[in-house]
Design goal:
The longest helix is centred in the N-terminal third of the chain and has 23 residues. By secondary structure, the protein is an all-alpha fold. Pfam families: Cyclin_C (PF02984), Cyclin_N (PF00134). This is Cyclin N-terminal domain-containing protein.
Length: 170
């Protein structure tokens, strides 16, 4: 999913939405018992569909550069547009049409909205990178996105300016 979002130059928050959509979908819908190969296909299909939905949510211009047939081809599905569209409907239904829930990306932007100066912008960009890395660790999904964002910002400050942290608490 990460490679797909990068290859198609999708909006920054897309990957966070994708992970949120898949996690929320699997929280309300169980996968029937499949063989290992089938589970891989189902998860790839969910990932491809979640990318398609999240990309459209994040940026209206995405619909011009990303089509369901392209998503299906990238995911290796020969059924094409119909399969992605059918799963898109099921996923949106399972999410009860609530696509705009805040993500760690949203909270990093919110918490650093009034940051000014080069140092603060460096902290913001590193915090985004740290929040992105949290998506690679399944254990981080149990934490609220706001907590992931705050931790990312704090970690970024400690990494970039460790002596500033010591002086500001004294």
């Amino acid at each position: 999913m990460d490679k797909f979002t990068q290859e198609y130059d999708l909006a920054a928050g897309t990957l966070h939405r994708v992970v949120s959509y898949i996690d929320r979908f699997l929280s309300v819908r169980t996968l029937a018992s499949y063989t290992d190969d089938d589970v891989d296909d189902v998860l790839r299909l969910l990932g491809a569909t979640a990318v398609f939905i999240a990309a459209k949510y994040e940026s209206r211009s995405t619909t011009e550069k990303l089509k369901a047939t392209e998503v299906a081809r990238y995911g290796g599905f020969t059924d094409g547009k119909e399969l992605i569209t059918r799963v898109e409907f099921l996923m949106i239904e399972a999410l009860e049409c609530r696509l705009g829930v805040p993500t760690a990306e949203t909270f990093v932007d919110h918490f650093t909205r009034y940051s000014q100066g080069e140092k603060e912008l460096e902290v913001k960009w590193l915090a985004h990178d740290i929040a992105d890395e949290s998506l690679r660790n399944y254990g981080c999904l149990r934490y609220l996105p706001s907590l992931v964002a705050v931790t990312s910002i704090f970690s970024a400050r400690c990494v970039l300016y460790p002596t500033d942290q010591l002086h500001s608490t004294a």
